[in-house]
């Protein structure tokens, strides 16, 4: 298991166009963020690309934890979408496990609530908050989501730590 005091978090928004963030929770600095288009038609290439990318990110930044947006499926979702998302999630969990990293999942509503104060916030609300809070310009909503997920994890940990300290 990695050092539990390591505040570097990898945030992932898993999808065909994946959002990826490496955030130092101690300094509130984004060390890396982007969105990456994964292969839509070739599932083997998509999974291998994700596997190599995550391993490279983990080796470069030595994070302590991984935070992933939990699966959200709109009503009119293709039957193949849950399978594809499940495969991506499985690869992400495998990479984390190989490096001894715990994985945490956050539902979209909790992320939006944590970031904007409103669980039904729009994608634009999330993008606006991320760009203002971190003084950056994101490529798209996938990148903003990854940053939001990582930040939600950081503030969730701070909240839990404060509760534990108050109970002592």
Question: Strands, helices and their partners?
Answer:
Elements: E1 8-13, E2 17-24, E3 29-37, H1 43-61, E4 65-69, H2 81-98, E5 103-106, H3 108-116, H4 123-134, H5 141-167
Parallel strand pairs: 1-4, 4-5
Antiparallel strand pairs: 1-2, 2-3
Helix pairs in contact: 1-2, 3-5, 4-5
Task: Provide a brief overview of the structure.
This protein is an alpha/beta fold.
What is the end-to-end distance? 26 Å
Order of helices and strands: EEEHEHEHHH
What is the CATH class name? Alpha Beta
How many structural domains in the coordinates?
A: 1
* CATH topology category name: Nucleotidyltransferase, domain 5
Describe the strand arrangement of the main beta sheet, using strand numbers: 3-2-1-4-5
Largest sheet: 5 strands, mixed
- The shape, in one word, is globular
Oligomeric state as shown: single chain
Please report the total strand number as a whole number. 5
Q: What's the architecture in CATH terms?
A: 2-Layer Sandwich
Helix residue percentage:
40-55%
Rg over C-alpha atoms, rounded to the nearest angstrom? 16 Å
What is the CATH superfamily label?
A: Ribonuclease H-like superfamily/Ribonuclease H
What is the mean predicted local confidence, pLDDT? 87
Count of discrete alpha- or pi-helical segments spanning 4 or more residues: 5
How would you characterize this protein structure?
By secondary structure, the chain is of the alpha/beta class. Helices cover 51% and strands 19% of the residues. The chain is built from five helices and five strands. A hairpin with a 3-residue loop joins strand 1 (8-13) and strand 2 (17-24). The mean pLDDT is 87.
């Amino acid at each position: 298991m990695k050092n539990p005091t390591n505040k570097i978090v990898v945030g992932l928004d898993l999808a065909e166009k994946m959002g990826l963030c490496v955030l130092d929770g101690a300094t509130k600095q984004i060390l890396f963020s982007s969105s990456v288009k994964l292969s839509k038609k070739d599932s083997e290439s998509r999974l291998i690309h994700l596997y190599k990318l995550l391993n490279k990110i983990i080796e470069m930044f030595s994070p302590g934890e991984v935070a992933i947006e939990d699966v959200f499926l709109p009503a009119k979702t293709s039957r193949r979408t849950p399978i594809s998302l499940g495969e991506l999630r499985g690869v992400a969990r495998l990479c984390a496990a190989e490096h001894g990293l715990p994985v945490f999942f956050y539902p979209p509503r909790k992320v939006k609530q944590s970031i904007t104060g409103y669980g039904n916030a729009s994608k634009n609300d999330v993008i606006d908050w991320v760009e203002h809070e971190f003084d950056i310009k994101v490529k798209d909503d996938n990148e903003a989501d990854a940053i939001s997920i990582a930040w939600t994890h950081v503030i969730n940990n701070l909240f839990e730590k404060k509760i534990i300290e108050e109970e002592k």
